[in-house]
Amino acid sequence: MATSTRKYNVFNFFKLPSAWWCGVRLKYVDTNKAVVTVKHRWFNQNPFKSMFWAVQGMAAEYATGILVINQIAKSEKKISMLVAGNNAKFTKKATGRITFTCEDGHLIEEAIAKTIATGEGQVFTMQSVGVNEDGVVVSTFNFEWTIRVKR
Questions:
Q1: In sequence order, what are the beta bridge partners of 32?
Q2: Residue 12, class by beta-carbon neighbours within 10 Å (0-12 exposed, 13-18 middle, 19+ buried)?
Q3: Among 23, 73, 103, 146, which is least packed, fewest CB within 10 Å?
Q4: CA–CA separation, 99 vs 58, rounded Å?
Q5: Secondary structure (3-state) at 70
Q6: Torsion of CA 122, 82, 5, 44, to 10 degrees
């Protein structure tokens, strides 16, 4: 179910303008995997001349969130989604183009099925790993998502 990334990047411009202006771009998405990139530039850097942690967080969250959005749309049910918590680990200065990949799409379908069946909220954690152009991990983000059928 690979989908056109262009429409999501246009969505970003109108609905998540700060992410768009910082350079967050979706490069690939299917049912189980999403790839988002962001390039270190003057306007998204910290005083130490590397990418500001919040910019990395926007890209990392987008890589997980787009998978949730797609699975909810596929279910054809009204389901709310919210990040309930997150944590991150930074292992190297983020410079150049950073690519965040999430391959946890398989977690969402089961959670959606449970919330539809029971009406109760479901919680699951998805990981997004950021690597630089040399393939070195610069940061790892974990997002705790909650979903619930809207009443």
A1: none
A2: buried
A3: 73
A4: 12
A5: helix
A6: -140
Which CATH number goes with the domain that contains 42? 3.10.129.10
Report which of 51, 47, 49, 46 is spatially closest to residue 37, judged by C-alpha positions: 51
Indicate the pTM of the whole model.
0.92
Report the alpha-carbon distance of residue 70 to residue 66 in Å, rounded. 6
Domain carrying residue 109 = 5-149
The total of structural domains in the chain comes to: 1
* Dihedral sign (CA 108, 148, 89, 134): positive
For range 24-38, the mean pLDDT: 95
Mean of the pLDDT values across residues 20-28?
93
Q: Is 99 exposed, middle or buried (0-12, 13-18, 19+ CB in 10 A)?
A: buried
